[in-house]
Amino acid sequence: MDHFPTNWGRPRNDTWDPYATYPIHQRPQNHQPKDRFAEGVQHTQQPIVTGTSVLAIKFKDGVMMAADNLASYGSLARFRDIQRLHPVGKYTVLGAGGDMSDFQYIQSILDELIVDELAAADGHTLGPKEIHNYLAEVMYSRRSNMNPLWNSLLVGGYKDGKSFLAYVDLLGTTYTASTLATGYGAYIAQPLLRRAVEGRENELTADEARKILEDSMRVLFYRDARSLDQYQIATITADGVHITESRKLETAWSFAEGIRGYGAQTQ
Amino acid sequence: MAAYFQAPTAYSRTALPPLAAVSAPQHLVPPSDTSGTIMAITGVGFTVIAGDARRGDAFGAYPQVRFVPTVFRLTDKAVLATNGFASDGNIFIKKVRQRLDWYRHAHAKDMSLHAIALLIQSMLYQRRFCPFYVHNILGGIEDDGSGAVYSFDEVGSYVRETCRAAGSASTMLQPFLDSQIYPKSSQPPTPGSATHLSLARVLALVMDSYKHAADRLSHDQIGDGLEVYIVLSKGTSTQGLNIEGVSEVTSIPGGERIFLLRRSLA
Amino acid sequence: MFRNTYDSDNTVFSPQGRLHQVEYALEAVKQGSAAVGLRSKTHAILLALKRSTGELASYQQKMFRIDDHVGIAIAGLTSDARVLSNFMRQQAMSSRMIFNRPVPVNRLVSAIADKAQVNTQEYGRRPYGVGFLVIGQDQSGPHLYEFSPAGNSYEYYAMSIGARSQSAKTYLEKHYKTFDDCSLEDLVRHGLHALRETLQQDKELNINNTSIGILGPAAPHEKGVSGAGSFRILDGEKVEVFLQSMVPKEPTEAPAAPAATDDDVQMEG
């Protein structure tokens, strides 16, 4: 069943030909899959329940990340208490945008990985660099098998005196920088983060870093229609991982009263 | 009059593919070109391999990060530049390096340049029907001490050349390189080295190429960092290398030498 | 020589609770020429005595590089060693591919020990006929392990395996307490002295029959070693400097009667 009304077509539509005006080899039906079950077997073709931006920056003692608590179902703000920052072992936090069920699957394979590593009990542990590389392999192999995990992920961590911050997405694309953002954050927050952080990675205190993230989250909440004013902040330093309780953004909407020219109000 | 016989586009007989075909798995996750430009030029006893370091994201070409290397040192005499779909590129580099490691285990020496070229061909062709979406340019020094550049398409077809540019600025830079490096454009280019060009001249060509490409192209296609590897055959003088930002990255002294030049395109 | 009722099958215990096939495998290790391993706070090294099958033949390889941070020396069947070392290389590479980290050395050794153990328990198999000394370096510093075909692996300050390795062990036991703070040169000298103990009466160490494997920062005269000091095998001319540094042996009073000669065994390295 084709669920898209625009494709149902009109009589003189190239994709629908009730009077057989086209040569047989060009008729739309010839392009349909031959396998009776072909439509039944589906890989993820689009994310369903989604999370929006994740932000992350480096500061003097480590890495700080932020993500709101919303999981949307299309344009519906469906789940409002979802945690999108996930600790992985003692040195790493994973932040996820994109499909939340895929993210939960990723959480489960990472937790398994950490348990296996712990079970070896030989003093070797997986740090953020190793976890990021592992995730990149997983994401790349899933996309190569035409069955991607539909996420943009940020991996932040601190181990052996070094901060680590990197990105990986559904294609297995990776990169690293001192400020990173996914989703709308990549367009709206990333320039703000760069201006506040670049060149000052070794000076910023935790309080300053938190302020930068909070301000960016506020801008995102004002602009991104799939965001929420409830969010969490993860801090990864030499002391380990700390993820805050959900907190609320201070916002001011009074200016909206003065805006004219949109929607029902025309003057 | 010719137009009279053409079917009007509004009645085009080419049926649009039905939605099911468009969203079928093979189109599910298209590789994305993460932009950037690579190039390599070889002269007498040296080869220069360069790449810029700007990287777009998976969905658009919006520059996400400003320093991602696209040129990789494989051995002391071979450097590989990749361009195209970044995650394919990264995996491919890893795989090539591990194959070279196995070669080292088996033969206790580094693989020679032309053998690496053949290896890359077969590795690319192995994925003929699910290709690595990557243009490769391999540059370095052959066993006989001559410089060489090999350029590949995505499925492994390759040729030894004197110069090659690939990536977002290639259509602009390749004709320019041809004009500078093949002295008579009316004659078919011969493989081998550009005998009339000094190392200093080639380096200047490379840096000018990038500078002007960065000026001309839209911001998301080229920019930020520039990495240039310079491979010298045994005994070639370092004349022309005493410029700012050059550091030596040779691992075993006494053979070929490798230098790395880092510049900003800002 | 070891005729026994319970030795034809490795899955059957003898009434004394022994697995004779496994014990014979340990004998195969003793047939191979000796290898010595020792470590300091900064370095782990291997030394091995290479054999040749005759004047016309080359010397049998005794050391293998596994990765930048792991190397092994073998005693016993070289062909079995190649199989196991290839397995170790695969493990090391897959760790680099998947996690971008050098494989933890103890896990690598455990992995081959587990493989060897399977061969001591399943019907229709034979144990490996080779023992390893494995040196490796990771976050916790340099390490030395012994692997034996019985499926055991232990970590040591210093160890030797192979023919007449007991004499080397005696030397190592006498000196191991000083190894921790040794420089690379001193450590190699100790290693060579230990290896020398395993020689037959009329033989001595030379550049043809000695291999040295080093993990850790370069010695002053070593060239072409990366900063951290990845694993390298020194053969031929490169061991000359180290051989020169040896202190000549005092003439021994009463040389012990040599044990059963092992020169006739051609296939062991």
Automatic annotation (TrEMBL), chain A:
<keyword id="KW-0647">Proteasome</keyword>
<dbReference type="Pfam" id="PF00227">
    <property type="entry name" value="Proteasome"/>
</dbReference>
<comment type="similarity">
    <text>Belongs to the peptidase T1B family.</text>
</comment>
<dbReference type="GO" id="GO:0005737">
    <property type="term" value="C:cytoplasm"/>
</dbReference>
<dbReference type="GO" id="GO:0019774">
    <property type="term" value="C:proteasome core complex, beta-subunit complex"/>
</dbReference>
<keyword id="KW-0539">Nucleus</keyword>
<dbReference type="InterPro" id="IPR016295">
    <property type="entry name" value="Proteasome_beta4"/>
</dbReference>
<dbReference type="GO" id="GO:0005634">
    <property type="term" value="C:nucleus"/>
</dbReference>
<protein>
    <recommendedName>
        <fullName>Proteasome subunit beta</fullName>
    </recommendedName>
</protein>
<dbReference type="InterPro" id="IPR001353">
    <property type="entry name" value="Proteasome_sua/b"/>
</dbReference>
<dbReference type="InterPro" id="IPR029055">
    <property type="entry name" value="Ntn_hydrolases_N"/>
</dbReference>
<comment type="function">
    <text>Non-catalytic component of the proteasome.</text>
</comment>
<dbReference type="InterPro" id="IPR023333">
    <property type="entry name" value="Proteasome_suB-type"/>
</dbReference>
<keyword id="KW-0963">Cytoplasm</keyword>
<dbReference type="GO" id="GO:0051603">
    <property type="term" value="P:proteolysis involved in protein catabolic process"/>
</dbReference>
UniProtKB/TrEMBL annotation, chain B:
<keyword id="KW-0539">Nucleus</keyword>
<dbReference type="GO" id="GO:0005839">
    <property type="term" value="C:proteasome core complex"/>
</dbReference>
<keyword id="KW-0647">Proteasome</keyword>
<dbReference type="GO" id="GO:0016787">
    <property type="term" value="F:hydrolase activity"/>
</dbReference>
<dbReference type="GO" id="GO:0005634">
    <property type="term" value="C:nucleus"/>
</dbReference>
<keyword id="KW-0963">Cytoplasm</keyword>
<dbReference type="InterPro" id="IPR001353">
    <property type="entry name" value="Proteasome_sua/b"/>
</dbReference>
<dbReference type="GO" id="GO:0005737">
    <property type="term" value="C:cytoplasm"/>
</dbReference>
<keyword id="KW-0378">Hydrolase</keyword>
<dbReference type="InterPro" id="IPR029055">
    <property type="entry name" value="Ntn_hydrolases_N"/>
</dbReference>
<dbReference type="Pfam" id="PF00227">
    <property type="entry name" value="Proteasome"/>
</dbReference>
<protein>
    <submittedName>
        <fullName>N-terminal nucleophile aminohydrolases</fullName>
    </submittedName>
</protein>
<dbReference type="InterPro" id="IPR023333">
    <property type="entry name" value="Proteasome_suB-type"/>
</dbReference>
<dbReference type="GO" id="GO:0051603">
    <property type="term" value="P:proteolysis involved in protein catabolic process"/>
</dbReference>
UniProtKB/TrEMBL annotation, chain C:
<feature type="domain" description="Proteasome alpha-type subunits">
    <location>
        <begin position="6"/>
        <end position="28"/>
    </location>
</feature>
<dbReference type="GO" id="GO:0005737">
    <property type="term" value="C:cytoplasm"/>
</dbReference>
<dbReference type="InterPro" id="IPR050115">
    <property type="entry name" value="Proteasome_alpha"/>
</dbReference>
<dbReference type="GO" id="GO:0006511">
    <property type="term" value="P:ubiquitin-dependent protein catabolic process"/>
</dbReference>
<dbReference type="GO" id="GO:0005634">
    <property type="term" value="C:nucleus"/>
</dbReference>
<comment type="similarity">
    <text>Belongs to the peptidase T1A family.</text>
</comment>
<dbReference type="InterPro" id="IPR001353">
    <property type="entry name" value="Proteasome_sua/b"/>
</dbReference>
<dbReference type="InterPro" id="IPR035144">
    <property type="entry name" value="Proteasome_alpha1"/>
</dbReference>
<keyword id="KW-0647">Proteasome</keyword>
<dbReference type="Pfam" id="PF00227">
    <property type="entry name" value="Proteasome"/>
</dbReference>
<feature type="region of interest" description="Disordered">
    <location>
        <begin position="247"/>
        <end position="269"/>
    </location>
</feature>
<comment type="subunit">
    <text>The 26S proteasome consists of a 20S proteasome core and two 19S regulatory subunits.</text>
</comment>
<dbReference type="InterPro" id="IPR029055">
    <property type="entry name" value="Ntn_hydrolases_N"/>
</dbReference>
<keyword id="KW-0539">Nucleus</keyword>
<dbReference type="InterPro" id="IPR023332">
    <property type="entry name" value="Proteasome_alpha-type"/>
</dbReference>
